[in-house]
């Protein structure tokens, strides 16, 4: 990392929790590699302090920040503008400070799509199930819908949230979109035919050992993606691997969305191969190159 001076710019992550995050390692390595005079830090911000944190970052002239659980929807209230994608789903994971104007973006969706492309998986014409209707689930759902799936299931512990997201998507897309309660989905025969299953919840994040759906729903001929990356092999991914299914871990998604955030803040092409190596090394995993 370059010497920190009075001219060093600030970029950061806000959320609760953030202690598990590898984003500071990824971004600081990328910023240093690109010769950019910024530092990336992580700040634990409880719900009650979100407004103060956002206004404070704006006041001190931070270049931008990432937003993680549980603030991706709530943070939109304190921003000046949202880009087209973020505005549709009311979820933000990346904020840039453009001369005092805070603009919200969402790179979670492109992170999911690019990670699937890297795994040589085409969404078009496929049956897809997404677990979670929070910030990440909203972004993944919209991004997946734009790729032309045959059908989409939105599964959530709170059925009303799944239904609300389904209605938002139905305004712009005309394939079947079915909201399901998580418990009922775990026993639903309709999900046994999905081609792609994506977990967008925190279920399975260390030290939680929960698996979001029953392993009997997992098959050899499907692909399973989990946005959780601590541990790298989550209970869901382990169960999928045991069934012989293809898997995509959360680091792949994290790196893809981080690269897009990096480019929004800096205007410089992200050194994504470096970022991927740093991410895997930080958790003791092997990069898939």
List the helices and strands and how they pair.
Elements: E1 9-15, H1 23-33, E2 38-44, H2 50-59, E3 64-67, E4 81-82, H3 84-89, E5 94-98, E6 101-105, H4 108-118, E7 127-131, H5 135-145, E8 151-156, H6 159-170, E9 177-181, H7 182-185, E10 196-199, E11 223-226, H8 235-242, E12 246-248, H9 250-266, H10 272-282
Parallel strand pairs: 1-2, 1-3, 4-6, 7-8, 7-10, 8-9, 10-11, 11-12
Antiparallel strand pairs: 3-5, 5-6
Helix pairs in contact: 1-9, 1-10, 4-5, 4-9, 9-10
Keywords:
Rossmann fold, alpha/beta, 12 strands, 289 residues, 2 domains, 10 helices, globular, six-stranded mixed sheet
Textual characterization of the structure:
It is built from 10 helices and 12 strands. The protein folds into 2 domains: 9-106 and 258-282, Leucine Dehydrogenase, chain A, domain 1 (Rossmann fold), CATH 3.40.50.10860; 109-248, NAD(P)-binding Rossmann-like Domain (Rossmann fold, 3-Layer(aba) Sandwich). The protein has a 6-stranded mixed sheet, with helices on both faces. A 6-stranded parallel sheet has the order 9-8-7-10-11-12, with helices on both faces. It is α/β, with parallel strands linked by helices and 289 residues long.
Compact description:
The protein has 289 residues and is an alpha/beta fold.
Number of strands: 12
Per CATH, the class of the largest domain reads Alpha Beta
CATH topology of the largest domain: Rossmann fold
Q: Output the helix-strand order.
A: EHEHEEHEEHEHEHEHEEHEHH
Helix content: 25-40%
Q: In DSSP terms, counting alpha (H) and pi (I) runs of 4 or more, how many helices?
A: 10
Q: In the residues, how many domains can be counted? A: 2
Radius of gyration (Å) = 18 Å
